[in-house]
Amino acid sequence: MLNFITWDVNPEIFSIGSISIRYYGVLFASSFIVGYLIMKKIFLKEGLTVELLDKLSTYVFVGTVVGARLGHVIFYEPGRYLDNPIEILQIWKGGLASHGAGIGIAISLYLVSKKLNRSFLWTADRVAMIVAIAGFFIRMGNLMNSEIYGVATNLPWGFIFAYNHEIVPKHPTQLYEGGIALLLFVFLYYGYYKTKMYSKQGLAFGIFLVTIFTDRFFIEFIKQIQSAFEKNMILDMGQILSIPAILIGVFLIFRATKRGGN
């Protein structure tokens, strides 16, 4: 039995001159393609047009990218970007925060729900499964980048991130979070087609919030800190930002189950 797994993957698939194609970029793009195809199936089932789906996709894409970038800037490195504001636009250098993406997506869903002539929760319930599968793709991208991993571990599935010149096995927290996101997607997808879960508005979205952010809250305990200011904090920024999302999720689940979610 292996005592650890050596992970020495080059983040670049190939490069042509100054242009490089990275696994993260391919997986990030794949999350939108797969999400679009799933939502197309749902829209057709619900009697909505592809034109409306295109509007939804545009709003969600912009909300995701802008929210994720501004989330990283505001929550993790405000000083750096205030000193060099032009770097805010340099997304290709890295720096995307999932909590910021969540806020950006929520705003975009609120705006597009009016165009769909549906409530915010109706839209959020269905997009939740898409965000879950996107979370899986993105965490796999983090794995291919050898980033956002955990502290040292003696567990047999510990990864030595050799590409980063690590010599001690670390928790592959990308796999932990990605695995939960994938399982959540399967659960929500099954719930849509095989159960009456979606007849209770807010239930699927509430389950999504509680699952993803509770998972994030506890995994942060074994994840390396992302910014120096978090070093002496009892709870890091990721955990602090997860608490409101968990509480909202609990409220939505309670509301949906006790009052039908209408």
Would you write up a description of this structure?
With 262 residues, the protein is mainly alpha-helical. The chain has one domain. It has eight helices and four strands. A two-stranded parallel ribbon has the order 1-4. The chain has a two-stranded antiparallel ribbon with strand order 2-3. Strand 2 and strand 3 form a beta hairpin. The model has no long low-confidence stretch (mean pLDDT 89).
Residues in helices, as a percent range? 55-70%
Separation of the first and last Cα atoms = 53 Å
Radius of gyration from CA coordinates: 19 Å
- Assess the beta-strand content as a share of residues: 5-15%
Output the keywords.
mainly alpha, 62% helix, 262 residues, two-stranded antiparallel ribbon, two-stranded parallel ribbon
Structure, briefly:
This protein has helices at 23-46, 50-75, 78-83, 98-116, 120-144, 173-194, 203-219, 237-259; strands spanning 5-7, 12-16, 19-22, 159-161.
Could you outline the blueprint of secondary structure elements for this entry?
Layout: E1 5-7, E2 12-16, E3 19-22, H1 23-46, H2 50-75, H3 78-83, H4 98-116, H5 120-144, E4 159-161, H6 173-194, H7 203-219, H8 237-259
Parallel strand pairs: 1-4
Antiparallel strand pairs: 2-3
